[in-house]
Amino acid sequence: MVSQTKEEYQSYDTAHIAMTYTALAILVILGDDMSRVNRSAITHALKCSQTPAGSFIASADSPEADMRFVFAACAISYFLNDFSGIDVPRAVEYILASRGYDNAFGQGPGMESHGGSTYCAVASLALLGRLNVLDLVQSDGASLRILGAYVYVDAEANRRFLESTCSAIGGFSKEPNMDPDPMHAYMGLAGLSIAGEPGLEPLVPHLNVSKRALEHLHAHTVWWRERND
């Protein structure tokens, strides 16, 4: 095994926008006050990561830039109560340019629309306070909950499908008769929460955290507490 000094490997040890979103969400879920988070460094990194088209690159050493990272940037900014790292008009323009003929959204302009990228687009607009730019959207349950249109979801059919993917050892799988995994276990529980399943903490779909976590964010984290004071 070849050992490396900090200087030798640090150029590869870059931050990632999706992992930054995940880290902040975990801190909020665990009840941290986020006083140890360097907000100014993160917002500066977001500003440097936005592309001329309005999307965001994943990291300094990655050319990937699509709707996933627009959502991550918007969620990060909401957690930090600081949207100064986002050129909002440019981000909104990118989102609307990614809308397809079916009124759903792709990962970018001219790309095929699907549920995941539509969720990222709708959640981003909600976090930016720009849902008013939408009229009709074909989407998934979380997006429809954000839009106040969950009535169009057959929640019982969703529940029956999830029951068919429930494993005897616990958790949910992607499809029936497959092994469960943490990601699909989370998605199954999130879907049930959005549908109002008794016994589950309500989910806030545009941030992907529970209502309890959102209340903690607003009342007990440093930058939101300063605003409320």
How would you portray this structure in words?
The chain has helices at 6-9, 17-29, 39-49, 67-80, 88-97, 115-127, 141-146, 155-165, 182-194, 211-220, 222-228, and strands spanning 56-57, 65-66, 203-204, 209-210. It is mostly helical and 229 residues long. The strands form two sheets. The protein has a two-stranded antiparallel sheet with strand order 1-2. The mean pLDDT is 90.
Which features does this protein show?
two-stranded antiparallel sheet; 11 helices; globular; single chain; 229 residues; 4 strands
Order of helices and strands: HHHEEHHHHHHEEHH
Q: What can be said about the biggest beta sheet?
A: 2 strands, antiparallel
Q: Give the overall shape.
A: globular
Structural class: mainly alpha
Through-space gap between termini: 53 Å
Q: Uncertain segments of ≥5 residues (pLDDT<50)?
A: none
Arrangement of strands in the largest sheet: 1-2
How helical, in percent, are the residues?
Answer: 40-55%
How confident is the prediction overall: mean pLDDT? 90
Radius of gyration: 19 Å
Please give the number of β-strands.
Answer: 4
Tally of separate helices: 11
Portion of residues in beta strands equals: under 5%
